[in-house]
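Why run this: before we spend reagent on co-expression, it is cheaper to look at a predicted model of the complex and decide which construct boundaries make sense. The entries below are exactly what would go into the expression plan.
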Amino acid sequence: MIIRRQLSRAIPRFTIAVAHASPSSYRPQLPTIQLAQPRFRGDKKKKKDVPSSATSRQSDIQAQQARTKQQEREDRRRELKRRTDRERAEARKTKVTPVLMDIETAARYLKAAEVGRPEKTATITITLKLALPLHFQSLRGTVRLPKLPQAERVAVFTEIPEIAEAALKAGATYAGGDELVNQVKNGEITFEKSFATPGALPLLRSVQRTLGPKGLMPSERRGTVADDVVGLLETSHGLLDLRTRGKILTAVIARASFTPKEIETNVSAFMAGFRKAIKNSTSRQAPLVSEIILSSTFGPGVMVLA
Amino acid sequence: MPGRFPTQIEFLKSLSIGRGALKLPNNVENMTLTFKRLNSYGHMGARKFWRFYLPKIQFHNPNLPISVIRTDATTEAEHKAAPSTLTISFKDRAPVVLNVKYKHSDGILQDFISATRAAPVKDTTPPLGKPDMRIKLNP
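The model came back. Tokens follow.
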């Protein structure tokens, strides 16, 4: 090595390699001198083929970055699992709380807080805080409340006038084809539920962006598209959709003008629907309830037993 | 006591106990309070009666329909002429209309008690559940 270094210092353009002869060889041991490859300007392709020290360093950095990213991902996953486990363990524990009441008392407090408020705005909402299992998608289901908190407006999209007439008779607020789609496009009408016949689906493509985000776009997957749209309307009218958003399931279940007894029956129907949705879900582990809160527009949110 | 609970307990107490915690007799059907949105010309007492006492009356009589109507006035004459009344309907007799214009909220409460023969609620502890109640939501 010493010889090589000295030589390379003396003649920087050449590299010298010593060919070691095998013991069986009779040839004399002679140092062979190799000329360095001549370099040409703009000969970049050749440079790429031979891994230089700069490119190898770059690939090292890239590999290091990939390792760090993987590590970070792993850390995040582990942290999520730890948090989920902690939340679920917490939900299973017996809670100690200074304010907890039955639904009837809670309803009395909320009614008192809403006294004299306009009936339209004074609503009572139930919120379930859930401890979900890891990688839980969402919980979906439907509930039929004994007393609906608000009159539900239903739109039926169909290209056949006879079906539209029948739908209006069966309780739909709006029914029609092209004109109805135009009204939706112009923002003239609003509704809480929508159904469609398969023939009307091409008409709805123009309002897909308006209805889609609100969850009002009829689709076969959701079961809101059928030839017998009137039958569908009769079975699903007055159903409340349950859907978890994040770790929370919330729904308006009553008005402040309801009596405490009515509020109580609605809450128990809601809880029954929630338990049924858990039973029907395909998830291996069920979500746990960490808190049940009954609240109103201007009132407090009180923890209840349900 | 942790976090949100002290404030919440205070709020719940303000809705249920104190002056105005009255149990009405069964013959009271409904009540309506009417006043102007602006306080001027004697409408402040009715507004304060709504804020202070109506929640407590509603809490102890949960099935009683109570409505509040707030009117609007534009001209000076309209402001002066706008009525401020408390109407109490009974099942067995004619409704009583109390004129609450230029009256203090405490005075309105006195008039209300004498008109309905309401009895103050004796139990003054708010039903918040047992202190530090233990619950298990996931059996």
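The longest helix of chain A spans residues 53-92. The radius of gyration of chain A is 36 Å. Bring this page to Monday's planning discussion.
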